[in-house]
Write a structure and sequence with these properties.
It is built from 16 helices and 19 strands. The protein is an alpha/beta fold and about 450 residues long. It has two domains: about 250 residues, nicotinate phosphoribosyltransferase, CATH 3.20.140.10; about 90 residues, TIM Barrel (Alpha-Beta Barrel). The strands form four sheets. A seven-stranded antiparallel sheet has the order 13-12-1-5-3-17-18. A six-stranded parallel sheet has the order 7-6-11-10-9-8.
Length: about 450
C-alpha cells in the first residue's frame, strides 16, 4: 500500500457505475475473459488550458492493488435482482491481476495522449473504468490549475486554502496533494499534512478577532498562545489601523522574544491595501514582516497583482483552486483499444478513438518541448517515451514515488514548456502527431467493422 493512501474508506469495489457490473456479469457468463487493453486520455483541451499536469497515479495503484469485494458488499449485491448467485460467487475471488503503463505524476501532457494504459482480462480492465477516471481526472485538473498559479506568481509562497469548499473530504485531500506536486509550498488542511507530509500553514479567522472585546487584545492573545511563526489577520475592521496596532504590539512582543512573522489581508483591493500596509510596516521598523493575501484568488488574479508589483510575499488560494472553478472537469475517456488480440476503435461522431497499444514519444529542442508523437508501442518514433510500466500482475513494479520527487519532476516539466504555453491565455496548440502506423491500424479496423456489418445483413 502507498504510504500516502487516502485511508478513509475510499477503496470500496462498489465505487463504480452499475453498468460496469452488469457488463461483468455478461462477460463472466459468456466466457469473455481474454486480455483487453484500455487507455485513459483527454479528448481535447479548452482554450484556457494549453497543457495538463498528470497526477493521481499513486492512488490509482493503491486502488488496483487493494481491489476486492468484501463480505458486506457481496451480501448487498446478492439482494439486487439483476445479479445471479454464481456471478456473486465469482466476484468473491475477484482481484486485479493486470499490467498498467502510465506517464509519471508531474508530467506535462496534452490532448489525445494516453496517460494510463491498462492491460488485463476484460472483466478486470472494465470494472476499474469509473474509479480510474475518478482518481486521475480530478487530481490532474487541480495540478494543472495549481501549475498555472505557480507560473503566474513565480517565487511567491502559494498555499492551498480550499478544503472547506472542496466537493467532499476526498476531493479536498486530493487537491492538497495535487497542488503540492505542482509547486505549492503547502496546505491549510491538517489531515493532508498527516497523510502526505505536506507542510501545513495557517493564520487566524475573523471570528477570533470578533470574539475579543478589542483587536489589540486578540492579536496579543494569539501571539502569546502561538509563539511560532505568528501571522495576524488585519482586515476584520480597518486594515490600515490594524497594521498600526501590529507595530505597537511587535515592540511589546519583542521583549518576550516573539516576533510577528507576517500579516494577512483577506478582502478589499488587495493591491492598494498591500501597498499601504507595506509602508506602515516599513516605517514602523517591521521590514522583515511579510504580507500574505487571500480571498477569491486564482491564476488570473495573481497575474494581475504580480504585474502591478504588489508587495505581497505569499498567497492562499482556496475555492477557485480546489474546485477548478473556471474548468470543473476534463473531457476525458477510458476506451477499449484491443481485445483478444483484435484492435478496437470507436467511430462515434465527435468521439472516435485511435486503436492499439500506444506510446507517447516526446521531442525537445534547446531544452524545451518541441513536439510529441503518438505511435503504436511496437512502432517507435524519435523522442523520449513517456509511458512507463508501473504495475505487473496486479502489483507495483516499484515503491511509491515520494512527493518530493514528484514536485521536482513537475518543476522540471514546467520549466521545459515553451514560453507561449506559460501564458494564461494563448491560442497556440502544442503539436501532437498521430503516427502513420496508428492511422493504418485505424483503417484496418474500419474495414473489419464494415465487413462485419455487411455479414449481418
Amino acid at each position: 500500500m502507498c504510504a500516502e493512501s487516502l485511508q478513509f474508506g475510499a477503496s470500496s469495489a462498489l465505487l463504480t457505475d452499475l453498468y460496469q457490473l452488469t457488463m461483468l456479469q455478461s462477460y463472466y457468463r459468456h466466457g469473455m475473459l481474454q486480455t483487453a487493453v484500455f487507455e485513459f486520455f483527454v479528448r481535447r483541451l479548452p482554450a484556457n488550458r494549453p497543457f495538463l499536469v498528470a497526477a493521481g497515479l499513486e492512488h490509482l495503484l493503491d486502488y488496483l492493488e487493494e481491489l476486492r469485494f468484501d463480505t458486506e458488499e457481496l451480501q448487498w449485491l446478492s439482494k439486487q435482482p439483476q445479479f445471479h448467485a454464481d456471478f456473486i460467487d465469482w466476484l468473491s475471488e475477484f482481484r486485479f491481476t493486470g499490467d498498467v503503463w502510465a506517464v509519471p505524476e508531474g508530467t506535462v501532457v496534452f490532448a489525445e495522449e494516453p496517460l494510463v494504459r491498462v492491460v488485463a482480462p476484460l472483466p478486470e480492465a472494465q470494472l476499474v473504468e469509473s474509479r480510474l477516471i475518478n482518481l486521475i481526472q480530478f487530481p490532474t485538473l487541480i495540478a494543472t490549475k495549481a501549475a498555472r498559479c505557480r507560473l503566474a506568481a513565480p517565487g511567491k509562497v502559494l498555499v492551498d486554502f480550499g478544503f472547506r469548499r472542496a466537493h467532499g473530504a476526498e476531493a479536498g485531500l486530493l487537491a492538497a496533494r495535487a497542488a503540492y506536486i505542482a509547486g505549492f509550498q503547502g496546505t491549510a488542511t491538517v489531515e493532508a499534512g498527516r497523510l502526505y507530509g505536506i507542510p501545513i500553514y495557517g493564520t487566524m479567522a475573523h471570528s477570533f478577532i470578533q470574539a475579543h472585546p478589542d483587536e489589540m487584545l486578540a492579536f496579543r492573545n494569539f501571539a502569546t498562545s502561538n509563539p511560532g511563526p505568528v501571522v495576524l489577520l488585519l482586515d476584520t475592521y480597518d486594515t490600515e489601523q490594524a497594521a498600526e496596532k501590529v507595530i505597537h504590539l511587535a515592540k511589546e512582543l519583542a521583549v518576550q522574544g516573539i516576533s510577528v512573522h507576517g500579516v494577512r489581508i483577506d478582502s478589499g483591493d488587495l493591491l492598494d491595501h498591500a501597498r499601504r500596509v507595506r509602508k506602515i510596516l516599513d516605517d514602523g521598523g517591521l521590514q522583515q514582516t511579510r504580507i500574505f493575501a487571500s480571498g477569491s484568488l486564482d491564476e488570473y488574479a495573481l497575474s494581475e497583482l504580480e504585474k502591478n508589483r504588489a508587495p505581497i510575499d505569499g498567497y492562499g488560494i482556496g475555492s477557485r483552486l480546489d474546485t477548478s472553478a473556471d474548468l470543473p472537469y476534463l473531457d476525458c475517456a477510458y476506451k477499449l483499444q484491443e481485445y483478444a488480440g483484435r484492435p478496437c476503435r470507436k467511430r462515434s461522431e465527435g468521439k472516435a478513438t485511435w486503436p492499439g497499444r500506444k506510446q507517447i514519444f516526446r521531442r525537445f529542442q534547446n531544452g524545451l518541448l518541441a513536439g510529441d508523437s503518438i505511435s503504436l508501442e511496437d512502432a517507435p518514433q524519435p523522442g523520449q517515451p513517456l509511458l512507463e510500466l508501473v504495475m505487473r500482475g496486479g502489483r507495483r513494479t516499484r515503491p511509491p514515488v515520494p512527493l518530493a520527487e514528484l514536485r521536482e519532476s513537475a518543476a522540471r516539466n514546467l520549466a521545459q514548456l515553451p514560453p507561449a504555453f506559460c501564458q494564461l491565455e494563448t491560442d497556440q496548440r502544442y503539436p501532437v502527431e498521430i503516427s502513420e502506423a496508428i492511422r493504418n491500424l485505424a483503417q484496418q479496423c474500419d474495414q473489419q467493422t464494415l465487413a462485419g456489418q455487411s455479414g449481418m445483413r
